[in-house]
Amino acid sequence: MEKVFLVLKVAEKVADSISSYRDKAWTITVIAVEYAKAGQTQKALQIFDKAVNVAESISDDCKKAYALSNIASELAKAGQTQKALQIFDKAVNVARSISDDYKKAQALRDIASELAKAGQFDKAVNVAGYIDDYYKAETLKDIASELAKAGQ
């Protein structure tokens, strides 16, 4: 396991040198996932927090919402449900501020889908409520699909 941590340390340094905030946030997130898989929960949470800070620096709200949603999704997969829900809330707030209706709907749909995949069906339906009717039906269909997969 020691080699794993040495490689992850190097990966962290490489991630720090990435200039694109979006790419940096994703890279840091996957490093956090690997720490979580290795049983290093506290270290993983620190790295996830760093990913959130980087994601919040993304100037494009569509990309920011997507990055935050991805981080939240990975947190949920790592068993950090409460932290994931906090980050999903941030993603929703960012997405709701998008002025372009189509981009807003796409961002909210992605977040609702990730919430459903994380088993947060009620929250996913609530997020779908922010979407205009045209896109809402497709989003609700996605949520229903996840509910069926979960046997509900």
Description of the molecule:
With 152 residues, the chain is mainly alpha-helical. It is built from 8 helices and no strands. The radius of gyration is 16 Å and the shape is globular. The mean pLDDT is 94.
Task: Write a brief caption for the model.
The protein has 152 residues and is an all-alpha fold. The chain contains 8 helices and no strands. The protein is globular.
Explain the layout of strands and helices:
Layout: H1 2-16, H2 21-37, H3 41-55, H4 61-77, H5 81-96, H6 101-117, H7 121-128, H8 133-149
Helix pairs in contact: 1-2, 2-3, 2-4, 3-4, 4-5, 4-6, 5-6, 6-7, 6-8, 7-8
Q: Strand fraction band?
A: under 5%
Q: Spell the H/E element sequence.
A: HHHHHHHH
Instruction: Give the class from helix and strand content and strand pairing.
Output: mainly alpha
Rg, alpha carbons: 16 Å
Approximate shape: globular
Stretches with pLDDT under 50, minimum 5 residues:
none
| Oligomer state of the chains in this structure | single chain
- Calculate the terminal CA-CA distance, rounded to whole Å: 39 Å
